[in-house]
Amino acid sequence: MELGIAVKRIDSYSLVDVQGEIDVYTAPKLREKLIELVAEGSHDIVVNLEGVDFLDSTGLGVLVGALKRVKANDGSLSLVCTQDKILKIFKITGLTKVFPIHGSIDEATSSPE
Amino acid sequence: MGPVTLELPPRSPYVGVARLAIASLARRQGLHEEVVDDLLIAVSEAVTNALLATEEEGSDEAVTVRWDGGPDEVAVHILDRGRVYDPEAALDPSDTQSLRFTLSLALLQSLVDRCDFGPRDGGGMRTTLILNL
């Protein structure tokens, strides 16, 4: 089971495109990438979850940790997700109130955070 | 379909193995795909909790995942030899794992019809996930 992560810049945003399953095995790779981005000065991050097949509490914990880091730098972290099975996880845990969740990359990178 | 038991090494790559096996058994049982998705998240949560408790205990004993699919309900039992804990007390905010565990508990309690925790005979924890059919 592999987790694919690709990063590109869109205007002032760093777009983190994630592919695969995020669980206790793969989440450290995402955590490291997000920590690296913040350390490099990327404080406005969009995480695209459209290619994510599976997400559990470990992955949610990584996203919450990254959100805290960018907020400590007056930045933002938003998500792109339209898959019902992934959105359900955010709804159950109440994290829809914590993360801005967008329906497309265009929407995420044009929204004032 | 009778009970099926998996013995998994207490290491993180095997959480995905548990999901694969349970997905196959759940589909064979004829569960709706949306129910399978929910069950896989619950299994992943319970196996992750078991692995982390086993790691904390410094144990290398296997995590057992037991599928028992009957005509009226499906039960998935996750058994470990890790640290014994009270799930409510484990929500202590001073615990560094607390955020993940809080989220995990919310998912476990929402995605299956019943989730029971308790000590396992001989040490460790037992988590039982029940789906009513």
Q: Strands, helices and their partners?
A:
The complex is a heterodimer of chains A (about 110) and B (about 130).
Chain A: E1 3-10, E2 13-22, H1 27-39, E3 44-55, H2 57-72, E4 76-80, H3 84-92, E5 101-102, H4 105-110
Parallel strand pairs in A: 2-3, 3-4, 4-5
Antiparallel strand pairs in A: 1-2
Helix pairs in contact in A: 1-2
Chain B: E1 4-8, H1 13-29, H2 33-57, E2 63-69, E3 73-79, H3 98-111, E4 114-119, E5 125-132
Antiparallel strand pairs in B: 1-2, 2-3, 3-5, 4-5
Helix pairs in contact in B: 1-2, 2-3
In words, what does this structure look like?
The complex is a heterodimer of chains A (113) and B (133). Chain A has 113 residues and is α/β, with parallel strands linked by helices. In chain A, 39% of the residues lie in helices and 33% in strands. Chain A has a 5-stranded mixed sheet with strand order 1-2-3-4-5. Chain B starts with a strand and ends with a strand. Chain B has a 5-stranded antiparallel sheet, with helices on one face. In chain B, a hairpin with a 5-residue loop joins strand 4 and strand 5. Chain B has 133 residues and is an alpha+beta fold. Chain B is built from 3 helices and 5 strands; from the N terminus they run E-H-H-E-E-H-E-E. In chain B, helix 1 runs antiparallel to helix 2 and helix 2 runs antiparallel to helix 3. The interface between A and B is medium-sized, with 18 and 23 residues.
